[in-house]
């Protein structure tokens, strides 16, 4: 979501005549987009601001003005604290107000006063943002934002606000524009993407995500559709069926379980049991047997016992994941879980994370190794680190690289997979 937001902010600043530069020292405007989901992410901000403030000072000595902007969820959560702690920051803007950037820059330049905007405006920012073009073959498209779930550990409902869905017409227009400017794949984004219920049209007055995907499937030139992140108990049969019916919908679902213990799930305020989650996975696999399953995990949630952690390990062994993200529980200010008495010691969290990641990585490695010998369509999205190499993704969102001509960038190419590691595939172009 932050990558998408950053692209939209760049487009907003381009209306003022700014262009992007790969060199920090050249920048007249430096914008940091921030994340508040875990403590580590938020902490990075202040060290990074320190580095940028140095550049700003050097430029000032050369007589050049530099505008330092901080955007995103840290601003939303910490508000004035950002301006108080970081003196070099000129503008701080929350995730719901970044469409106002051109106006805020003008305001700053007019008044030379520091600006903070962290409200939840009644109007959608999407109605005010300038159209933007695709910058590569695979593009994000935010269709839903915010969250009404209030999982007890999570800051998102406080930083991104309540759930909001963009209309189907708006999404189709943006998708068509991205495709006409070079996108081949679109990843639909939302904190609860499968809760999307945007306004439809006369043919489909009350569409859900499955219907939206079917509609996007009609866009000529759009070859791949993905969506993330889904909330397990809100998965509909229509969405599962779309994986069977819509050719462009990729066989991949990111479905965070968080824990394999029903008691912990309840304390997290997750509205499903492990058995219900496993049933949803089974239904996806029935509709699309090769579907890749991915998940998020939190270890060391307050009160999690050794037995409950072990249930997570057992659940992982039963389900078998193709890929995953796992984190130590991080207490976030203002969330109910941060006030729970029985916080788990850091050393225990570290130990549990190691054990879980060992299992998850071994499953991921097997999922990669399984592909050796197969021919897979890979969307080549960027140049690789090594000379002559291009990188891309299989339908299962596995990384793949190949030595191939750069004219193949942005295309879906058949690769014969010749080798695999735990994090990437190597292939040869099949002619
Ligand atoms: N501590 C650790 N992980 C968290 N996540 C969200 N909040 C926290 C937290 N307080 C994880 C969840 C979520 C992912 C985006 O980040 O696993 O699915
Ligand atoms: Fe956070 Fe996701 Fe829970 Fe919403 S559903 S509160 S975004 S973890």
Structure report:
The mean pLDDT is 95. Helix 8 links the parallel strand 8 (185-189) and strand 9 (224-228). The protein is an alpha/beta fold and 431 residues long. The chain starts with a helix and ends with a strand. It is 35% helix and 20% strand. It has helices spanning 2-14, 39-61, 73-78, 80-85, 101-111, 156-159, 168-180, 209-216, 237-245, 262-267, 274-287, 306-319, 346-369; strands at residues 29-34, 67-72, 91-93, 115-117, 138-142, 144-145, 164-165, 185-189, 224-228, 252-254, 292-299, 323-328, 375-383, 389-393, 399-403, 412-420, 425-429. The radius of gyration is 22 Å and the shape is globular. It folds into three domains: 2-117, Rossmann fold (3-Layer(aba) Sandwich); 125-369, tm_1862 like domain (pyruvate-formate lyase- activating enzyme, Alpha-Beta Horseshoe); 375-429, OB fold (Dihydrolipoamide Acetyltransferase, E2P) (Beta Barrel), CATH 2.40.50.140. It contains 13 helices and 17 strands. It has a five-stranded mixed beta barrel with strand order 13-14-15-17-16. A four-stranded parallel sheet has the order 1-2-3-4, with helices on both faces. A three-stranded parallel sheet has the order 5-8-9, with helices on one face. Helix 8 (209-216) runs parallel beside helix 9 (237-245). 5'-deoxyadenosine (5AD) binds at residues 37-38, 153-154, 256, 258, 296, 298, 327, 329-330, 332. 5'-deoxyadenosine (5AD) is lined by residues 37-38, 153-154, 256, 258, 296, 298, 327, 329-330, 332.
